[in-house]
UniProtKB/TrEMBL annotation:
Compartments (UniProt record): Membrane
Protein name as annotated: Energy-coupling factor transporter transmembrane protein EcfT
Family: Belongs to the CbiQ family.
Keyword match Transmembrane: yes
Keywords linked to the UniProt accession: Membrane, Transmembrane, Transmembrane helix
Organism of derivation: Candidatus Accumulibacter affinis
Membrane-spanning parts: 7-34, 46-65, 179-195
Entry superkingdom: Bacteria
One cellular component term from this protein's GO annotations in UniProt: plasma membrane
Membrane topology category: Multi-pass membrane protein
Amino acid sequence: MHPSTRLVVWFLMLVLIQNLEGSLLAAALLVLPLCGGPALRRCWQLTWGARWLFLSLFVILAWGGAGDPAWNGAMAPSLEGLADALTHIGRLLLVLMAVTVLRARMPLADLLSGAHRLLEPLRRCGLDADRGLVRLLLVLRYMETMPRARDWRLLLEVPEQAAGEMFELADRPLGRRDYLAITVVVVSILALFYLRQG
């Protein structure tokens, strides 16, 4: 499958995740252990790094939502707010796992090749796809080499002069299987939206 197709399917899965709720969201969270131990450990690291975001999200949604109080008391969150907070936290966990699985299963060369193919049409709008690709690479490098919070002094050190790097992108056109995979995912998402509306 073409790297661009994998990125498009991955992006559509993110759209699908943002529309999961209730039993479907719970079922998706229960499937997470099937992603494997390394992916779960990496996802846990990302989750721990975003722990304050999770806590803030929970407090704002649980105590900021209108509805019936969860218990009798002045500081009780609303039941609707709790449900909303847990839904958004569950979706965020799934997104972090999706990012983890993408990075684990897609080599950097494929990721850059797929992103280049997807950004290429933006040249007609005056945007430089190559520059966007270099920025994506810098962000990925920064994420991988970022020191832990307790090692913040490393950020003050003068970085070593890095030698110039060269990347060769192997580009090929999308095949029938690629278009079929994208169509199946789009139809599935549209069917889910239709079922939710009905």
